Amino acid sequence: MTEVKSPEVPAPPAAVPSELTPGGRWGRVRPFLPLVALAVALTLPYSTLHLPGIFEGALNEPGTLQLLAVCMVFGGLAAGYDLLFGRTGMLSFGHALYFAAGVYGTDILVTKAGLPLWQAALFTITGGTILAALIGAVALRTVGIAFAMVTLAFAQVGAILVARDFGGLTGGEEGLPLDVSGVPEALVGVTNTVNLYWLALAYLVVVVFVVHRVSGSPTGRVLAGLRDDERRVGVLGLDPYRFKLVAFTLAGGLAAAGGVVYCLIVGGASPHITSSELTLSLLVMVVLGGPGTRWGPVLGGILYMYLDHRLVAFGASEAVDALPAFLSRPLSQPLFVLGAVFILAVYFFPGGLASLAPRLALLRGSLRIPSRGR
């Protein structure tokens, strides 16, 4: 008789550290991180802490607060753009148009038309939302690269109108300074920079809240389905065009609202915000942070704008000048350093900054598991 061998029982898997499981240490801490970040943001204007090399002055100085305000505006702008790119799968090259509409619309209505700020902001946000709906109604008749090119074409039209000083309203290449006589005193002057900081923080909170509510709603699940497989959504009897138009219009309205806040922070409008380079920067912010993630685009937008401002001072520093010419010349160019940082981040963290914590947790786990087996 042939001997029947009993089947081998597989060895039990190695124990996985609790912090790697969904309910582990990271899962317990993660829900409280937004509250911690908000608490830190609320205390910054009252802190006299100096961080040499990170900021030029104390945290509560006007220059630092203005930089942080700009970073938060672009963090919200990147989160709004992620509603298109990361959560719906639409690659738009014209998103800067709605941001520029918010900036120039506020400036023109306050400076040229003499409207009070609250009326100018209301009309500008409404107009920017309608503009996004009209352009989206046309652009969304196409898909893929054709859609990206149509949005880019509309954005270029807007850039040309601004550069040519259409109707004598935009100031052309010199830009249009904001007439502060129509702005509340609480938002004017260096001493009131802290109020602009609060305004930028409020904008960021509103954008994050809106994007998260939309993403968690039935509409958000349809948008995620459009990103993954648009044909399947159509088979289910839903109209992809209508849902994409909703996302496109909402993202445009949020961008216009960011333009209102940005106009107050910088005190006017300049033509560089109408260029397609700004939309490309938004794309870099989203990819750097992690498209389609909860906090990745916000972190990517804040980090990108911080580096964009601080690398100018870094390139002109004595430490860079003391380096050999083959190093000092490229390092003195902020775009070169920013591009190098982006390439390294994408290479080592393909999922963006949002994937950094899980990857580090897996790395710690891989280093701990062998030691326990011994």
How is the secondary structure organized here?
Layout lengths: L24 H5 L3 H11 L18 H27 L7 H16 L5 H23 L4 H20 L12 E2 L15 H24 L1 H11 L1 H6 L4 H27 L1 E2 L6 H14 L6 H20 L2 H4 L3 H7 L2 H15 L7 H18 L1
Helix pairs in contact: 3-7, 3-10, 3-11, 3-12, 4-5, 4-10, 5-10, 7-8, 7-10, 8-10, 11-12, 12-15
What would your notes on this structure say?
The protein is mainly α. It has a single domain (about 60-370), classed as ABC transporter involved in vitamin B12 uptake, BtuC (Orthogonal Bundle). About 65% of the residues lie in helices and about 0% in strands. It has 16 helices and two strands. The protein has helices at about 25-30, 35-45, 60-90, 95-110, 115-140, 145-165, 195-215, 220-230, 230-235, 240-265, 275-290, 295-315, 320, 325-330, 335-350, 355-374; strands at about 175, 270. Helix 3 (about 60-90) runs antiparallel to helix 10 and helix 3 crosses helix 11. The longest helix is centred in the N-terminal third of the chain and has 27 residues, at about 60-90.
State the main characteristics.
membrane; cell membrane; transmembrane helix; transmembrane; ABC transporter involved in vitamin B12 uptake, BtuC; 374 residues; Branched-chain amino acid ABC transporter permease; single chain; two-stranded antiparallel ribbon; mainly alpha; 16 helices
Shape: globular
Oligomer: single chain
Q: Strand-and-helix sequence, N→C?
A: HHHHHHEHHHHEHHHHHH
CATH class: Mainly Alpha
Counting DSSP E segments of at least 2 residues, the number of strands comes to 2
Q: What integer value in Å does the Rg equal?
A: 24 Å
Distance between the termini: 42 Å
- For this structure, the CATH topology is ABC transporter involved in vitamin B12 uptake, BtuC
Q: How many H/I helical runs?
A: 16
Q: Specify the biggest β-sheet.
A: 2 strands, antiparallel
CATH architecture tag: Orthogonal Bundle
Specify the structural class: mainly alpha
Tally of discrete structural domains: 1
- What is the average per-residue confidence, as pLDDT, rounded to a whole number? 86
Unreliable stretches (pLDDT < 50, length at least 5) are 11-23
